[in-house]
Amino acid sequence: GAVVSQHPSWVICKSGTSVKIECRSLDFQATTMFWYRQFPKQSLMLMATSNEGSKATYEQGVEKDKFLINHASLTLSTLTVTSAHPEDSSFYICSADTTTGGRVETQYFGPGTRLLVL
Amino acid sequence: GQSLEQPSEVTAVEGAIVQINCTYQTSGFYGLSWYQQHDGGAPTFLSYNALDGLEETGRFSSFLSRSDSYGYLLLQELQMKDSASYFCAVSTRDDKIIFGKGTRLHILP
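Predict the joint structure of the above. Result:
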């Protein structure tokens, strides 16, 4: 089956630093990748939709200048949390779509990246 | 706007059957899906319903009634490893997935 990886799985950083999280589709090409954030005991919240070669589409309330998304190839999307602060500490999860349709049955989730900002 | 409602917690006994309900209000509804998430892990896709009716996959079944904006996940022959959070999620015609707040399933031996 389709496999999505994320790196790193864990990151601890100081407040004010930037953190880059990679999302890779290992055995398929993903035209669309999605980035989610999940706070403890809460639901997954969609942050942005990333299409290869074009600008990401951000959900309402998500600062595009703070959460930089780059989808440079069909197998890689990156999320950079710029000038991270403690309130950005969360579980960041990406998903990749095997089709252009964006349907749930063709989306595969990565294992997530846990970010802790001190 | 989009909203999904599901119970925050459900408790059941090992070997029993449990049903987790989900009601939704959404524009551009395309389908309802269910995910399982263990503590510290990422969500795992369980099932998807785009049409009314029951879909069965092993011990898990999922049901959808589009006219009632309602669905449920049915877990049979509960095992301790089924202790997890279960999320219903709506997929929309603009290719997004909106997740519910999750139901934490506690299983007693």
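The mean pLDDT of chain B is 93.
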